[in-house]
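Lecture 7 notes: from sequence to structure.
We start with the chain below.
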Amino acid sequence: MNRSVSHNALSGTIPKELGNLKELLMLSIGSNNFSGSLPPEIGNLVKLQQFYIDSSGVDGEIPSTFAKLQDMVTMFATDVAITGNIPEFIGNWTKLQSLGKFLKRSCRRFQGNSLEGPIPSSFFNLTSLTTLRISDLSNVSSSLDFIKEMKNLTDFSKKLIDIW
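Predicted structure tokens for the same chain:
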């Protein structure tokens, strides 16, 4: 089951009841005017494979319950005010093929925002990754050695603050 509420100018908080849609494979909430943080209940969507939160208006940290999203293949989040450290658990999403960090539209995926480093050492596990776009991370003092193990990586973009 796939659900998209993108491009609807929806406002308010993201309903925590979305976490009850246990068969959901794709969730797209982008291009809306939501406020507040991502509901931890989304972490209950253990079959979720694609999650798009670009330009959704959400802010705050990525909930720790997202560690349960082991089937995640694609996560796009651009132009979103996500804060805090990059969660270590993302490195356990071993099926992940495309990860983009939170910034502006176009093809950026995991860029922008207020996320901070270091890049978790668990990223070494993301050997299925084909697209990794990270930029504008602050307080980064980590190595990028994990990239050597990413044999499928065809699209890599980085712009790290304070890493070199």
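Points to note: Residues 5 and 29 are 5 Å apart (CA to CA). Residues 102-109, 160-164 have pLDDT under 50 and may be disordered.
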